[in-house]
Amino acid sequence: ETGVTQTPRHLVMGMTNKKSLKCEQHLGHNAMYWYKQSAKKPLELMFVYNFKEQTENNSVPSRFSPECPNSSHLFLHLHTLQPEDSALYLCASSQALAGGGNEQFFGPGTRLTVL
Amino acid sequence: DAKTTQPPSMDCAEGRAANLPCNHSTISGNEYVYWYRQIHSQGPQYIIHGLKNNETNEMASLIITEDRKSSTLILPHATLRDTAVYYCIVRVSYKLSFGAGTTVTVRA
Fold it and tell me: Which residues of chain A approach chain B closer than 8 Å at the C-beta?
């Protein structure tokens, strides 16, 4: 247990569906992240939030819409996805954003399959 | 952030120490060395990090050479549950750049 939880753990959706991924951290951290890990590829950073404010959007398509209502919760809203969006979606948090001494703690991920 | 080079794979006997090398010859003075691991289909797990000095925690030890151009992660007594992909990352910002890592297989 890392203190970062993600739900659901598995999700299968059609291309016309709308779904949301949820992440919650119980560590009192101020920064939260969404990563994507496709099969046989390295992790890709998608979005970064610091004190609820988005600080980075790594050229992510608009069919992925993040939301950070408070420092403990992070959502990723999904709509009209493509089969190539099937991947493991990982949430992470860290105490602070800047600085080399801030380790990120990851959740278990949501395995998404788009049919 | 500086790039790192790791061997693609290595085997280790259960109960023995596993020494995982990492080269980071272009590291700059304020960049930290981080190690994470990822067990199949799970989220990456933070292991340890260091700047200049050697570090030890309940999971592992990190040995950084004096010129900081390379480092070694040591798992003192490898168990079957240590089988994973291990990533060596050099960073100063919040951005973690995960490469291919080293696939470590611990054998009974």
Answer: 2, 4, 31, 33, 42-43, 45, 48, 88, 90, 92, 94, 97-109, 111
When computed from its CA atoms, the radius of gyration of chain A, rounded to whole angstroms, is 13
As given in the structure block, the two tokens for residue A55 are 């600080």
Q: What is the pLDDT of residues B47-101, one digit of tens each?
A: 999 999 899 999 999 999 999 999 999 999 999 999 999 999 998 788 888 888 9
- CB-nearest to A103 from B30, B31, B46 is B46
- Bond before A8 cis per omega within 30 degrees: yes
- Whether a cis peptide bond, with omega within 30° of 0, leads into B8 is no
Q: Which residues of A touch B43 (CB under 8 A)?
A: 2, 4, 90, 92, 106-109
**pLDDT of res. B99:** 86
Q: How many CB atoms lie within 10 A of CB B77?
A: 10
Q: For the segment B49-62, what is each residue's pLDDT rounded down to a tens digit?
A: 999 989 999 999 99
∠ CA A44-A71-B98, nearest 5°, is 20
Per-residue pLDDT tens over the stretch A3-27: 999 999 999 999 988 999 999 999 9
Where is A67: in which H helix or E strand? strand A64-70
Model pLDDT for residues A68-79, shown as the tens digit of each residue? 999 999 999 999
For chains A and B, what is the number of CB pairs under 8 angstroms? Answer: 55
